[in-house]
Design brief:
With about 230 residues, this protein is of the alpha/beta class. Helices cover about 40% and strands about 20% of the residues. It has one domain: HUPs (Rossmann fold, 3-Layer(aba) Sandwich), CATH 3.40.50.620. The strands form 3 sheets. It has a 5-stranded parallel β-sheet, sandwiched between helices. Strands 4-5 form a two-stranded antiparallel ribbon. Strands 8-9 form a two-stranded antiparallel sheet. β4 and β5 form a beta hairpin. The longest helix is centred in the last third of the chain and has 16 residues. Bound molecules: zinc ion. The site of zinc ion has 10 residues, from α8.
Length: about 230
């Protein structure tokens, strides 16, 4: 049974990567109106922001970009912003990867809630692709953090804020499956860039360098997805 769409606007954090692409597809299936927000946080490979804009244009949604790059570079040690090997440990948190950007999701959710508030929303619906499965250990991706953040934002803005995380319990194979079931697998492969090195070369599973942790995770997820759907053309 197909449920009616929620007659409100969903604001999707759109990074240009695979997970946020699938979140956008999910939001379009579930909400009457959808808008997207991209955030330039000073990432080394800002090419993904171009992909976010392309995805927004493809689905004809209003896409807004906020730039916090200078602020984040001043306050953050992370191989996503600075030089360094993504596979090492974070210099300030040995149990986390060097790519960890402290509070990145928390900041992004605050920014996107401000954006929705500015648009005059009385009920604020946010969608983010954070995920505990296949997870790099980032603490602000965990379900309990997201639940607490929704309470915090609701109190801070004095109106209901709901944070939807359709991928929270999905692995990468299931994320491919969501795109496939929505008829968007081709767009997922062509219009997204998840690679930490910003490499755009095309692979069966999508664009990327094949070497960085994000590419390896994506490639592995695609292989598992293909085992479930062996009839699909390569
Ligand atoms: Zn890569």
């Amino acid at each position: 049974m197909k449920l009616p769409k929620i007659p409100e606007t969903a604001y999707v954090l759109l990074s240009g990567g695979q997970d946020s692409f699938v979140c956008l597809v999910w939001a379009l299936q579930n909400f009457a109106t959808v808008a997207t927000v991209g955030i330039n946080y000073g990432q080394r490979h800002s090419r993904e922001l171009d992909y976010a804009a392309k995805i927004g244009a493809h689905f004809e949604v209003l896409h807004t970009v906020y730039d916090i790059g200078n602020f984040m570079k001043a306050i953050t040690d992370s191989t996503l912003l600075n030089q360094g090997d993504h596979s090492h440990s974070h210099p300030l948190a040995a149990d986390l990867p060097a790519s960890f950007v402290p509070n990145r999701n928390g900041l992004f959710l605050t920014i996107i809630s401000n954006h929705a508030f500015r648009k005059g929303e009385q009920r604020i619906n946010l969608v983010t692709g954070t995920c505990e499965t296949d997870f790099s250990g980032y603490p602000d991706c965990r379900d309990n953090y997201i639940k607490a953040k929704a309470v915090e934002l609701s109190l801070g803005l004095d109106r209901p804020v709901t944070i939807y995380t359709p991928l929270m319990w999905k692995n990468k194979a299931q994320v491919f499956e969501m795109a496939y079931n929505a008829g968007k697998l081709k767009e997922l492969r062509e219009l997204t860039l998840t690679c930490y090195n910003g490499e755009e070369q095309m692979n069966p599973w999508g664009r990327g360098c094949r070497q960085c942790p994000a590419c390896k995770l994506r490639e592995k997820g695609f292989a598992a997805f293909r085992q479930t759907y062996p009839h699909l053309a390569p």
